[in-house]
Amino acid sequence: CYNPRMRISTKFTYEDLQHFPSDGNRYEIVDGELFVTPSPVPLHQRITGNLFARLWQHVREHHLGEVFVAPLDVVFTDSTVLEPDVIFVSESRRHIVGEKNLAGSPDLVVEVLSESSQRLDRDIKPKQYALHGVPEFWRIDPEGKTVEVFRLEETAYELAASLGFGGQITSPLFPGLSLPVSSLWES
């Protein structure tokens, strides 16, 4: 018998994500809610690639850990799985690196804003990263040519730096690195 007050709700899990098609879309879940965004545009990929390349080189030279680029699932819980654009895992957290995903909080996550994922990248994801104890979060705005660096203070992010096109990205996670913001836009 149909009851109009009864609501059928589907909560997605990491296992469900394993069965989604490889169709170029990005599938992420937050507290069981599914978020689907289209594949990124070339500018997004250029910035992501440049950042990954520069971090990867520095991290490798100084034996700091590992750097990854999306798509790669970060499984915080069975019902919260996100795919940051760039991820850094320090040597001390290497145990979270699994065969198919990262199971736990990395040291740094980076989101490059996209038109299709503004709300997710500006509001939902940062709250989840803070909730799950990711120490540092960077948000890159391709159109504004800015980088915001956030550091976790207890349970919320505090803005540590707001950098324009002429700025330099530095972080205690990467001793000796001073990365020109403008270098992320180079083709």
In brief:
The protein has about 190 residues and is an alpha+beta fold. Helices cover about 20% and strands about 30% of the residues. A 6-stranded mixed sheet has the order 3-6-8-9-10-11, sandwiched between helices. A 3-stranded mixed sheet has the order 5-4-7, with no helix packed on it.
Q: What is the subunit arrangement here?
A: single chain
| Order of neighbouring strands in the sheet with most strands | 3-6-8-9-10-11
Strand tally: 13
Q: Quick check: average pLDDT? A: 94
Number of helices: 3
Structural class: alpha+beta
Helix content: 10-25%
The span between the termini is 61 Å
Sheet of most strands: 6 strands, mixed
User: How big is the Rg?
Assistant: 17 Å
